[in-house]
């Protein structure tokens, strides 16, 4: 089961599902941000599994991806992007959306999860480390990594280059931190509160309209 009809406390109360969203403005690019379906890394797993094994969808994840495809069956999609992970690509492949729209999904580094870097002691930083700093109301940026705002900026700069997609729908299959950051940015939520307020469920769909020289419009979370 994935969240589809749950409306953000910030989004319009008149919009509670994909069917309720108004038609796309001719000057807008409608972006369906999809969090990847359940991967092995999202479950209790053997600690000896490789990174490649952890990056695969579970049986439940495959079912979630197929449910995404059914939910979007009546929505024409112009382009499909995903991060460079296997789980995001597998989500879109298993959904059948790419085949239905005769569009090849493209893996782009701009849609990767936040690059965390390393802590002062030289160990890799984790997202939990960033969350702890955010909970203190501070900006988290580790050595060799990027801030949350930098991660969201690269995502939105890439989307705003989609000039030929105006009046159309594109899909971006990415990760929870990116979706939370983008949704929070649209609602002017401080960086350190975005994860708490907009953490998306696995295989959930967040809808946003992007218009040049205009604020982001969060249609459905």
Question: How would you describe what is shown here?
Answer:
The chain is of the alpha/beta class and about 220 residues long. Helices cover about 30% and strands about 15% of the residues. The chain has eight helices and six strands. It has a six-stranded mixed beta sheet with strand order 3-2-4-1-5-6. The longest helix has 13 residues, at about 60-70. Mean pLDDT is about 90; it is low at about 1-15.
Short description:
By secondary structure, the chain is of the alpha/beta class. Helix content is 31%, strand content 14%.
How are the secondary structure elements laid out?
Elements: E1 28-35, H1 51-54, H2 59-71, E2 79-82, H3 86-95, H4 97-100, E3 106-107, H5 127-135, H6 148-159, E4 168-174, H7 176-186, H8 194-198, E5 205-211, E6 217-220
Parallel strand pairs: 1-4, 2-3, 2-4
Antiparallel strand pairs: 1-5, 5-6
Strand and helix order:
EHHEHHEHHEHHEE
So how many helices? Answer: 8
Structural class label: alpha/beta
Low-confidence segments, given as residue ranges, are: 1-13
Distance between the termini: 15 Å
SS elements, strand count? 6
How large is the share of residues in beta strands? 5-15%
